[in-house]
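Dear colleague,

Following up on Tuesday's group meeting, I ran the structure prediction for the two-component complex that the binding team flagged. I've pasted the input sequences exactly as they went in, so you can double-check that nothing got truncated or mislabelled along the way. The C-alpha cells for the whole assembly follow below. Feel free to forward this to whoever is handling the docking comparison.

Inputs:
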Amino acid sequence: MWLWFAKLGSPKWFYELSSKWLPWLVGAMAILLSVGVIWGLLFLPPDYQQGYSSRILIVHVAVAGTSLAFFPLMAVAGTITLVWRMKLADMVAKNAAPLGAWFSFITLATGSIWGSVSWGTWWEWTDSRLVSMLFQFFLLLGVISLRSALEDSDKAAKACALLSIVGCINVVIIKYSVEWWNTLHQPSSPVSLSPDSPNGPEFWIATGIMILAVYLFLAVSLILATRNEILVRERQAQWVQDLVRQE
Amino acid sequence: MRPHRKKRLAIIAFIALSMSAAAGLTMFALSQNINMFYSPTQIANGEVANDLHFRIGGMVKAGSVEKSQDSLKVNFVTTDFVNDVPIQYEGILPDLFREGQGVVAEGALSAQGIFVATKVLAKHDENYMSPEVKAAMEAAGASPQNHSGLSEQ
C-alpha cells in the first residue's frame, strides 16, 4: 500500500496513468452530461407550483453539491503536501481552487435566478445557506490570491494547504445551515421511490444523472489542469523532454 | 510512518480540531441571531421585542387571504398550526404566494397585534412533484402540505 502511495506521488506515473483513463472519463462525462442536460432542461416534468422554472434546479443542485467537494479535496491534498511533501498533491490543490470558485459562482448565479422567480428576491443577506455559500466563493478566491501573493512556491503551498483544511468547517456549515437554522432556502429533498409521491423517480433520476455528470466534469477538468501543471513544473525532467520530442 | 511526519500530522490535527471547536462555539453563541425568521409561536411566547423590525415565517392559512379590489393591499393570516399572526401588506406578491404554502414576511407588529409587512417572500418546501402526481395525491385525499419545510420551534 505504501509503495502504491509513493508511486502515486510521482508526476510521471500520474501523467501516464491519466493518459489511459482520460478517454473513458471524457466519454462517460459526454454521455451523462448530454443526457442530463437534454432530459433535465427539455423533458423533466414541471413542478405543480413553480412550473418550468423548477428545471433550473437540476443544474443548481448538481453544481452546488459538487462545489462542496472542493474544500475536502484540497484539505486531503493539503495534508499530503504538509506531511509527506508530495509534489503532485500540491499541483492538484492549486488547480482545484479556481475550478471550485467557478462551481461556487455558478451555484450562486443559478440559485439567484431561481430565487428571483420563486421567492421573489435575488438575494437575502439573512439566509444562512446563501451567505455561507457566498463565503465559500470568497474563501476560494482567498486561497487563489494567497498562492499568488507568496513568491516562495513552497511557502505558498503550505499556507494554502492550511487554509484549505480550515475551510472545511464552512462546508459543514453550508450543508447543515438549512437544518440548524430557519432559512428561506429549502432543505435537501428526500428521495422517494414511489412514483406517486413528491420527489419521485421522475425528478431524482434526472438529478442523479446530472450530479454524476458534474462530478465527472470536475474529475476531467482537474486531471487536464494537473497534467498541464506537471508539464510546466517538470519541464527540466528527461521524460517530459522525451515526450515533447515525440510529438 | 516516520516520526517527523507523525509530528506534522499531529500538528495539523490539532489545528483542525481547535479551529472546529472555535467555529462550533461561535455558531452556538450566534444560533439565535442566525435564524432568518421567527415562528408565530415564538412571537406568541413573547420572544420578540414589540417595537422591533423583524421577519416572521409560517404557512399562509387556507382561506385567510383577502385581496383589496382597488389597490395592492392584501390581508392574510400566517400560521405554524399552533399559533396565528395576521399580516397586512401592500405590494406585489411573489408568484409562489399561495394559501397553504410557506411565506417569510418582513415588518413589525402594530399595537393591535397585526404584523405590518414591508416585504413578503414565498418559501418553497423541499417537495417537488408534477401536476399529475399532485392531482393523483389530491384524489387519494393526501395533502403534502404537512411537510412544510418550516422547523417547529
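DSSP finds three helices and six strands in chain B.

Cheers,
M.
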